[in-house]
């Protein structure tokens, strides 16, 4: 099969399309998926560059997000088995079946490939309303956004939410999820196209986070009270300002950061506010399963709709990595085998 391989950590040029052996047959609790599309996430670029706390052994195939058709199912994930239900495989109605369309939120062998071996718990039914390309845009962005808003953020109906970097994959998912939950959403985005896109998802206000006075605009838009919940995708740039924009007992959920930041703790003390971190790879299995169950319902009903900015062939994985880090974002980049 064809797969993108990383043989040494480095820049986007280390991503190379190669002929490699097919993955081994799925074992207990595993599913083999024939990939029709693979989602590109910022974390993929950190891993490729060797700039992440936990790095895969070389060589490896990148990617955890994707969508395709079940090729084969390991014994404990077989349809109707008790262990399949315990594994949490495939939201919707039971375990995945060969020939069934699915999306993935994690992979053993990497999704930038024609075939990917995945843990059964990270294989979820693809609602019929979604294409494979749209399905590849679900896993990391929507699960992160759901956990940020409802599991870590404890958002309540009627609250005012700010989504920083709202035109990216996580940001757009957060806006859609918040609007569907009857929250009032404000967002920031770095380009006119991005701001138009966020507005189209239902945000009540979108400001240019490149404008020198954008924090003042946000403070005024909150009526001076501040935000009950802030989803922060770039804490190295925005966390200090976030604390000054919080309402009493507000929460900042940090879902991304590329470096250190200086904050004024008194801003937290005076508001009795919280800063909470989030990392999907350390999330409790039960919370992840609940998140994907909720996402299935939203995706199937049409309340949630992934936004794909660009489709590229697998061979253009280096370009995808360059573009996702260059910004400004206007949705998800997806690779197609």
Structure description:
With 337 residues, this protein is an alpha/beta fold. It has 2 domains: 168 residues, Quinone Oxidoreductase, Chain A, domain 1 (Alpha-Beta Complex); 141 residues, Rossmann fold. The chain has 11 helices and 15 strands. The strands form 3 sheets. Strands 3, 4, 5, 6, 7, 14 and 15 form a 7-stranded mixed β-sheet that branches. Strand 14, helix 11 and strand 15 form a beta-alpha-beta unit. About 4% of the residues have low confidence.
Question: Would you give the CATH topology of the largest domain?
Answer: Quinone Oxidoreductase, Chain A, domain 1
Task: Tally the structural domains.
Answer: 2
Distance between the termini: 10 Å
Helical content band: 25-40%
**Which residues form runs of ≥5 with pLDDT under 50?**
79-91
Q: Summarize the main sheet.
A: 7 strands, mixed
Oligomer: single chain
Helices and strands, in N-to-C order?
A: EEEHEHEEEHHEHEHEHEHEHEHEHE
Under the CATH scheme, the architecture of the largest domain is Alpha-Beta Complex
What brief labels describe this structure?
alpha/beta, Quinone Oxidoreductase, Chain A, domain 1, 2 domains, 7-stranded mixed β-sheet, 6-stranded parallel β-sheet, 11 helices, 31% helix, 26% strand, globular
């Amino acid at each position: 099969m064809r797969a993108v391989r990383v043989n040494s950590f480095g820049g986007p040029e280390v991503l190379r399309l190669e002929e490699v052996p097919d993955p081994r047959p799925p074992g207990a609790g595993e599913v083999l998926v024939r990939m029709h599309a693979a989602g590109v996430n910022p974390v993929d670029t950190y891993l490729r560059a060797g700039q992440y706390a936990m790095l895969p052994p070389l060589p490896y195939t990148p990617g955890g997000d994707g969508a395709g058709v079940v090729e084969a199912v390991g014994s404990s994930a077989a349809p109707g088995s008790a262990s399949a239900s315990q594994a949490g495989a495939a939201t919707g109605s039971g375990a995945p079946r060969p020939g069934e369309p699915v999306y993935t939120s994690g992979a053993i062998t990497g999704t930038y490939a024609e075939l990917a071996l995945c843990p059964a718990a990270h294989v979820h039914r693809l609602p019929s309303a979604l294409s494979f390309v749209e399905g590849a845009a679900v896993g990391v962005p929507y699960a992160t956004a759901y956990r940020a808003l409802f599991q870590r953020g404890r958002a309540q109906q009627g609250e005012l939410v700010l989504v920083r970097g709202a035109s990216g994959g996580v940001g757009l998912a957060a806006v859609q999820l918040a609007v569907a939950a009857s929250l009032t959403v404000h967002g920031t985005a770095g380009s006119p196209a991005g701001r138009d896109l966020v507005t189209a998802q239902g945000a009540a206000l979108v400001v240019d986070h490149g404008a020198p006075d954008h924090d003042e605009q946000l403070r005024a838009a909150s009526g001076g009270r501040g935000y009950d919940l802030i989803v922060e995708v770039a804490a190295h740039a925005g966390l200090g300002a976030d604390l000054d924009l919080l309402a009493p007992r507000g929460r900042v959920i940090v879902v991304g950061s590329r470096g250190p930041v200086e904050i004024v703790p008194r801003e937290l003390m005076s508001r009795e506010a919280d800063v909470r971190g989030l990392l999907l790879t350390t999330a409790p299995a039960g919370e992840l399963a609940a998140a994907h169950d909720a996402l299935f319902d939203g995706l199937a009903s049409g309340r949630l709709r992934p936004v794909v900015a660009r489709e590229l062939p697998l061979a253009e994985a280096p370009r995808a990595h360059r573009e996702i880090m260059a910004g400004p974002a206007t949705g998800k980049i997806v690779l197609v085998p």
